[in-house]
Specification:
InterPro entries: UCP020408. With 82 residues, this protein is an alpha/beta fold. It has one domain: Rossmann fold (3-Layer(aba) Sandwich), CATH 3.40.50. The protein is built from 3 helices and 4 strands; from the N terminus they run E-H-H-E-E-H-E. Strand 3, helix 3 and strand 4 form a beta-alpha-beta unit. The longest helix is centred in the last third of the chain and has 14 residues. The radius of gyration is 12 Å and the shape is globular. It starts with a strand and ends in a 9-residue tail after the last strand.
């Protein structure tokens, strides 16, 4: 499973993710509601421009602890095209 963190809605994110991320089931967490369980997560995409620092720090710490690969995007999914 792939966790997308940040933004209120995913919109086109699902379509634009690279194949290694989009082949998996996507779970979205906006950073404000209840935290999702990371037990089945294998990859995390963090949209840093759309989330608070505490949520980023929580996700980063948990991902390191569990050995989950992460990608950080500053301005949203368009950063993947660079």
């Amino acid at each position: 499973m792939c966790l997308v963190v940040g933004a209120d809605r995913l919109g086109a994110v699902e379509r634009l993710l690279p194949p290694e991320y989009s082949k998996e089931e996507l779970i979205h967490w906006d950073g404000r509601s209840r935290r999702p369980s990371l037990s089945r997560i294998t990859k995390i995409v963090v949209l840093t421009g759309f989330i608070n620092h505490n949520a980023v720090n929580f996700v980063k710490k948990e991902a390191k602890k569990r050995g989950i690969s992460m990608i950080f995007l500053r301005r949203g999914i368009s950063d993947l095209r660079c």
